């Protein structure tokens, strides 16, 4: 996987290893509104960087989380989805994924399975959330259950890029998920924390060491 | 013009666009039959629709009628002149079943055209920053998952349910 970065000379993906940098990718069929959602979240402040050679658009976004500056790169597909799959570099080093479908077109919902399978091939562990877009076209869908997310154990949101419903919420959520994935405070670290808590006094010294490491990690990220 | 458009349709003989509208002052509902002239089975429907929309006498009455609708009505008229039935014409206008259409498979031009069609609704429902009631971080709660009914899209793997 590391070799893939060589294929994109304009794109230095090593920067995503830095604590304050996160990469969030968007996945979904053509015309489900991925770019429209991006633009609604960023409003006038967005500076998209078109990389037409790679059929992708980058949106840079800076925010503050717990007093720390975080630089977010959102990756959007710019038509690459029409090749039925994405270039491996699209997934490379991604910290979170937003999967989008259009509530007006069943095909885009059915295709989530394919997108999700591909995502998991490259990024088995990153947090992923599912959004049902264009609910402004038919509010009745919000009374319905879409099983895909539940089946995969993914958070699910009803959104509308047009009227703005839950768009900002979803993006903020994605940023938080990306950061916590990066800090590895997800499953693996939760286990470590649990273990530390259950340590008894005679192991105090040992656990203290671990704890120090961890606190440091959380603070710098 | 102070009228409210109610409905707009098409009549085959003589070829005409029929408009039902209400006059604001009197509240009376009226019908206006606009003859479609110089139109044949070879005519360009979007041009013909535009011509009508900007017609010096009829245009003002059609202000509230979207250009796309006028164009569709002309297509129905043209299809009739070509010998198609009304059902055939309407089915063709509807396009492929939106549930089965895979836009990933379309070429650039066709995809751009479909996106343009979708954009109509987007623009109509759009809340802009300049709107007085605009909320950037608009959060809406929807019923809990277990209170929602199963979506027909999940019912089974076959597509027969429609």
Computed over alpha carbons, the radius of gyration of chain A is 19 Å
Would you tell me the structural class of the helices and strands of chain A? alpha/beta
CATH topology of the largest domain in chain A: Rossmann fold
Strand content of chain B: 15-25%
- Tally of domains of chain B: 2
Broad shape of chain A: globular
* Number of strand segments of chain A: 8
> What pattern of helices and strands is seen along the backbone of chain B?
EEEHHHHE
Q: Strand-and-helix sequence of chain A, N→C? A: EHEEEHEHHEEHEHHH
Short description:
Chain B: It is found in: Cytoplasm, Cytoskeleton, Cilium basal body; Cytoplasm, Cytoskeleton, Microtubule organizing center, Centrosome, Centriole; Cytoplasm, Cytoskeleton, Spindle pole. Chain B: Keywords: Cell projection, Cilium, Cilium biogenesis/degradation, Cytoplasm, Cytoskeleton. The complex is a heterodimer of chains A (221) and B (162). With 221 residues, chain A is α/β, with parallel strands linked by helices.
Describe this structure in words.
The complex is a heterodimer of chains A (221) and B (162). Chain A has 221 residues and is α/β, with parallel strands linked by helices. Chain A has eight helices and eight strands; from the N terminus they run E-H-E-E-E-H-E-H-H-E-E-H-E-H-H-H. Chain A is globular. With 162 residues, chain B is an alpha+beta fold. Chain B folds into two domains: 91 residues, no CATH class; 32 residues, no CATH class. Helix content of chain B is 31%, strand content 16%. Chain B contains four helices and four strands; from the N terminus they run E-E-E-H-H-H-H-E. Chain B has a three-stranded antiparallel beta sheet with strand order 1-2-3, with helices on one face. The N and C termini of chain B lie far apart (44 Å). Chains A and B meet through helix 3, strand 7, helix 5 and helix 6 of A and helix 4 and strand 4 of B. Strand 7 of chain A pairs parallel with strand 4 of chain B, so a sheet runs across the interface.
